[in-house]
TrEMBL record:
Transmembrane segments: 6-28, 59-78, 98-119, 139-165, 171-193
UniProt key word Translocase: yes
Lineage: unclassified sequences, metagenomes, ecological metagenomes
Protein name in the entry: Sodium-translocating pyrophosphatase
A molecular function GO annotation: diphosphate hydrolysis-driven proton transmembrane transporter activity
Amino acid sequence: MAVPLTIFVALIAGIISIAMALYFRYLVFKEDPGNEKMIEVAGYIEDGATTYLKIQYKVLGIFVACLAIALLFLPSPFETSDTYTRVVSGAINWEQVIAYITGAVGSMFAGWLGMYVGVKANTRTAQGCTKGTKEGFNIAFFGGAVMGLAVVGVALIGLSIWFMIIPDPNIVLGFSFGASSVALFMKCGGGIYTKTADV
């Protein structure tokens, strides 16, 4: 089965998205981080965010590993034989498992990049606002765009590569499930963390 041209277009678009995210990161990081007090406060925020992310990723790593093992023995959309025959013959659901893991890792990467740049953009945005609304807005926009472009880029690259390897729409299930499951827990955990920090 020939790979459609649209898959190659999606892959290129994903690469461009990641490149733009890294370029916006560069634009944010070259801005003035502010005075000593701002940098000190930003350091506390960064330490807290980094610690939170490390703990969450450890828990998510265990969750992803357990779910990946469970997925091995689920009926595969690429196999028609019963579970016992597949396990004995070694025909386990490896395609979906690997797709699931790559989706989860991709989602973790996008989350880490967004958090990292977002924390760094805080004081730079505040410092930019002392010069004018436009300067502050641009820094905030570029900082936020990094996360959005990273998510889109990872999704397009991951799905395109998987579809080139296995040109079957069912492969989208594993990759999307991995990315979505991690994103769900990151959103819930992140919401709890920020509300606790506010209190």
